[in-house]
Every structure is written in C-alpha cells, then in structure tokens.
Design brief:
Number of helices: 31
Largest sheet: 5 strands, mixed
Radius of gyration: 36 Å
Strand order of the largest sheet: 7-6-8-10-9
Number of strands: 10
Strand content: 5-15%
Length: 898
Amino acid sequence: MSQRTGNEVKKETAAKVADADMEVDVDTTSEMTRPVSLPIPPSGDEKGAAAEEAYDEDATQVIRLPLPASVAPAVQPSPAPEKPLKLDKPAKPAEPKREPPRKTAEPRKPAEPKPQPPGKTDKPHKPAEPREPAEPKREPLDTTPAVAQALPVLPKPLPAEPAPVPTAPAEPVAAAPLGGEVAPSRVTRLAASASSWLPPLLTVEGLVMYVLALRVPHGIMRGVDLDKIEGLGLVSVLPVTAFAAIALIIVSFFVTLTQNTDRKGLLLFQLAAITFTLHGAAALIEAEPRFPTAWVHAGFAEYIGRAGEALPGLDARFAWPGFFALFGFVLRAAGVEDPSTVLQWTPFVSNLLYLLPFVLILRQLVATTRARWFAALLFILVQWIGQDYFSPQGFTYALYLVFIAILMRWFGRAEPRTAPLPAKGFVRRMLARLDRLSPGELPARPTTVTDRVVLLTLLVGLFVATTATHQITPFMMLGALTGLILLRRSTLSLALPVFLGLIVIAWINYQATPFWSGRINELFGGIGKIFANLQENTGDRLVGTDPQHAIVLKVRLAICGVILLFAAIGLLRRLRRGVGDRTAAVLLCVPVLALGLQSYGGEIGLRVYMFALPAACILGAYAFFPNLPAHTSDAREGETVPVRRRPRPLRFDPATTRRVSAVLAAVTALALSVAFLVARYGNEKFERVTTGEAAAMHYVYDHDRPSARLFYLVPILGEEVTPTIPWRERDIDRVEYYQALVNENSADLSGVLTALRAKPPNSFLMTSRGQAAYLELNHGFPAGWGERFRAALDASPSLKRVYSNTDAAIYTLRSYPKGSEIPPPVPATMVGDRSTPWTPLGLVALALAVFTLFAAELSRLRGTERAPKGRRKLVILGIVMTLAAMAVIVERFVTLTG
C-alpha cells in the first residue's frame, strides 16, 4: 500500500476545495482546452484516434460545456457523498500526547473500519479510516485508487512541522470545511458568484448612465444640444458617455451569453435595454414625435375615430384603413386628445413587440444558445430603416413576424430525405444531396386537432387583418407561406396560399378601387424592371447630397452589405456541417422578388431589406456560431464541431475557437451599434419635429374655417412624397396641401407668389427649419439658405407674416382680388364608379371559393385518410369558384381603367 506525505494530501485537499468554490468557465475547463482530436462518442479509445484522421463531412465531435458554479451545483472531485467528508479536526493536528479537544467541539466521528488489503475498498458511503495504534506513530493510509477516489484522505502532520497549540475558547472546528481550511468570507463568496449578479448590475448601470448622459443639461461630456446637429445627424451631438453606456450594456450581454446556461430572463432584459438605448434615443431628448408621416397617420386615426368613416378619395392609404380604424377607436375610447406621447414612444414599443415573435422563431432553429441570442441582438442592431413609427407598415410587420412564428412552431416540418440518390442527372443528384441535409429547423410541436384548427383560424385572421391594413405585407406573408410549402418545410397544403391570395386580390379589386383606378401604368409599369428599381433605391439617393449626409447614406448601404455578407458566410458554414436551413433561405429570398414589381415611390428597397432582415440575422449569426447543439450527460448544453481530415498547424482547438468567435461577435456588435446611430438618425436634422413647427401648424388649424390651404417648399414640382412638416395632424377634411417651387437663389420668390395667387383667400405658406435642412442636405442648397429665404419673405411687399417663432413662420398674401371668398371644404368623394355588371356574380363566386378552400384545409387537418373524397370535392369546387371570381376581377380591372 503506497503512502502519501502530509504536504501532498494537504495540497490535494485545498485544490479540491478551491475547485468546488470556483465558478466553472467553459473557456477555462480542462476538457475544453484539449486539442480538437477529442474521442468521438460513442467510439472507444482505439476508434477515437482513427476517426480523427479519417475524414467524414458529417462526422462531428461533442464539446461538453459544464455549467457555472453559480448556476449548477459545484463540481465534485468524486462521486462520494458529502456526509463522510465531515471528519475530525484535520487542519489543526495536535501532538499525540496532548489531550484531545473538547467533546462539544468534535464532529460526529465515523466508525473506524478494519484495515483491508490493498486491492479491496470500502463502500463509497462509508469511507474507511486507518486504525490508530497505541503508539503516537500512525499507520500509513490506504491509497488504493478506489479509496482515493471515494474519499479525500485526512491530511496528517509531518513530523518536522510543529503542531499548533489549541487556544480556548475557540469556535467549533466542526464548522470548518474539508481539509481544515478556513470558511470563505462573504467577499470571497460574492466574488465567486459574480457571474450571476455582475451582468444585470452592469446593464442597470449602463441604463442609468445613458439616461443621465442624454437628459442632463448640456456640457462637455454630457447632454445633447439639438441645435448643433450636422449632416451626420444625431450622432454628431451625442456625448461620449452615451456611447460608453451602450458599449457597457452590450458587453454585459456578451458576458451573460458566454456563460454555459440559457438565462432567458436576463438576456431578454439586456436585449430590451439595448433596444431602449438605440430605438428610444429620440424619445428621450426630443420634445415632439419625430418623422412627419407619423403626424399624418395620427390625423387619419383621429378623423376615423371622430367621423366613423374613411376618405379613400383623399388619400390612397384610406383604401387600407385597418390600422387607422383600430387606433382611432382605441384613442377615442381612452379619451386621448393629444396622441403625441403615443407617437413618441411607438418606435421603442414596436421593436419590443418585434422581438417577442422573433425569439419564438429562433427557438424553432437547430442552433446553439449563442447563435440564437446573437441573432436576436443583430436584429436590433441592423433594424435602422425607421418603419417602426406610428404607421400601418410598422403594425403589420409585427403581424408578419407572428404569422411566421406560428407557421414554423405549429405547422413546421423537418424531415430529411431518406430515399437513395438518383442514378443519373447532375442537377437531380445535386438537389437530392441538398435534400438529404439535416434540417436546420425543429419539427412542429405536437398539437391536437382542435389546437390546429384554432391556430389555422388565427393564421387566416392575421392575414385578413394585414390585407385590410397594408399594401405590401400580405404579399410577403403569401410568398413565405408558399415557399415553405413548396420546399417541404410546412405541413399545410397549397390550397391555403390559393385561398389567401384570392382574399388579397379581391380586397384590392373591390375595396381599393380609388387607389388603382386610372393608375394602372403607375402601379404595374415597374414590373420586371429589377435593376431600374434597385438603382432608384440605392445609387439615385446619393446624388446631390451634402458631403456629410452622403456618409449617412453610404453607411446604410454598408450595413445592408455587411449583414448579407454575414448571411452568405453563415449559410456556407452550416452547409459544411451538413445542415440545410431552408426556412431561413426562403425568408431571405422571397422579399427580393418585390424588386421586380415596382419601385414603391423609391422605397421598395427599404421594404425588401426590412422583410429579409429576420432571415439575414439568423444566417448572419451562423457566421460566428455555426455549430449544432449537443446535450451531454455532465452539462445541460454542449455543441458539436466537425472532424477535419488533415490537422492544420494554425487550426485552433474548440476552446480557443469559441473565445475568438465570441470576441469577434462582440466587436461586430459594438461597431454595428455605432453604425446604427448614424444610419437611423442621420436624417434627424430634417426628420426631427420641433415645438415651434408644431405650433405653426396649430395656427393653421385654428384658422381653417371653413377651409384652408397650406403650401410647403419643394425643389421640383410633383416629385415630393412626404413634406418635411408635421402636417395633417388635425382637420384633414378642411386643410388642403399644395407645393410651392423654390430654387437655390433664396431671393427668388416667383414660385411662391405664383402658387399663392392661384388660390383663394385663407391660403398660407409655411417655411420651417426642417424644410430648409432637407433642401440643403438632399438637394444641394447652400448653407444658411433657410435664414436668407425667410428674410426675403419678410422683405416682400406682397406678403405678410401672420405667425412666427424661432423654428417656423406662416405667410399669406397682403391682399386678394375684390370679391374673393373662402370656399367651403372640397368633399373627398370616391374616385369613379366601383361597380360593373358582373360584380355581383364575382362576389358570389368569391364567397363560395373562400368557404370551400378554407373548409378543405380544415378537413385536411383532421387527416387525409378520414374524408379524402369529401376534401377532394371541396378542392375541385373551390378551384372552379376561384377561376370564376378571378374572371370577374380581370373584367373589373379592364372596365374601370378603360
């Protein structure tokens, strides 16, 4: 029987106690620091080395990721129970001839077993101790492997070491931990559990720091002076402490992410904090809601809530009144007279709503925890296009994400191909190989027939609500659904896309007649002009802009290019691991097809980017974390890495790779956060609405009886889509809006005077800070043009100023021709007749088609073997009725546009 010295035993015991108190980090675990050539489970030791050298595309090895000590129980040095570890006073050995310690201070002493031969061990729950002879010298301990593994042996004092003299009174030594070490202090325990409390503390600290940096009075390192905004936008006036706060929150997110546990609550809180700092910046520092179009939509909702009807003849957006009707009712029922607070915080709330269904989508992916949460972070960082304001587009985007989440979670399919490869045909064999890849999505959750019927009804309800609210979003839903069905990633049938497509076409044909009547060429003239539409949405936006503002536009294009590059890299890295992410590929490619339809006023590129963003973020996260999850026996989560044929000298081991990936992801996130502030708030010089501009508009509303006309400044007549004033907030049925032509010569007032003289009394011209900034940044007007133009208006003998403040002024003509009167409001009537002789027949066929196709899909949910003949008849009848309804729709297009 071998014997160990007292020093060796003492060091071994102290090391085990330290290991038990120390937090286990995945990047410092001995198991993670081994080279890539780990044995491949469940192969034996002899096969592990052979598998390392033999190459297999699908061969992977498991990396075990133990939990941190603050989350999981401390790692035990052996499977022995804890009870036998409470031994006599090992840390303070006394001389053999001295009296033993007081009986009250002794712990329960285990029974002394009989000495055993070297090859035999005690049971693990009753570890043995050596028998002490009568003489002071003790017997050597049994250090066989079994005994040493079952129990840390009691350390013995060396003969050369002086024994400490016991002091009285003393604390009961039974409370001392194993090996006689002193119990860790509160500071030590707090430091050991830092991984649990430090990330939330850093997040809260970053939030407080960010709010103070933006809200306190302006200084060198704090506060924001909005009057000093330059061509780069809001980022040019943000203090350094604001950037430091954002960086602190992002770093705390990665500290949480690199722990070996999925702390969902904390990660969601950190994502919400990052969303607040990025998407809530304007709401913190600006007195009025940003973006003039939000004011327009508030006016639409106010009118529907007050009048109870829409005005399709006034604006094409009233042909899709779902959003305006909903919020008009809610605001009126809640008694909200001033919706400015709602408008101000809508971007932040919208992005929080987007995050919830996107997290559900991520939970259906075969990916590691790091990949999922990093994809959610990317979704926040690159969502800069600003369609999350108070708008139908922002509202229906949330419905789109919920639609996709339900489709993947309860109607998804993940079945790899099991049939053999085709014998001939390169293309067929290549497609078959792709079909045999492991699905990158989880199968649908098990549900009952009743659950599936309810969920399908909810899907149809979301689609109908979207159809009544926005022009583009229903087509994105329809394309995603059809693509998932065709690529066998959904259990639904093609009858559902036909049914939903009929709904959206019928809505456009019957309800949105004022939108398309007489505008067929404008609507369908861009079909097939992919490159022309792309040029209008990219290169044409860089022409004639301020040099600083051109940087903003280039940063936007750069963000788009970077996230698409990450998506391509992530897709390739997953393919090398034998994973086919079909759902992400469908969601990425379907929105691009919209480029072949029309330019959408030069904004179709923004819509394509917006709807492709979820899939791009998913694949972009795989560029950093492409491995598959693998649950192991000693940790809740692990991951697999592919086995390589030839070991390269520069290839890192898995632990180093994980560290490098995490660092690269963190650096990328920090860079994208700064780029986000430039891209999102780069137009803040003219998209910001000041209190003075809102007050000037209120003057017009106070003087619009019985009607009024307001002119805004444009460099080209007919080209402006959105004036840079907070217009149409109120009285949309009384105030009409017109354009007044201006040029770079601030003294030339001919265009303004011509426009005002062509209209009756009670016509006004508004000049504002935002309009001047827009002309200077986007159309090359010289700096200071706005001040000089306002001075020219004041000096004109034909105009008089009726209202002014620092940010805006209102002008009108000094005199009108004799007998001129203010006309009554122009009625916003419908455009043309919306009926044809075949319209009633088309409505009947439409109703039958909708009913039969929906009934056919419901019957399919019960199982095709239960009523195949009945479902077949419903499908045939639905197709016939669909053809009849489509014939009437075509007839209406031809008749009403002729």
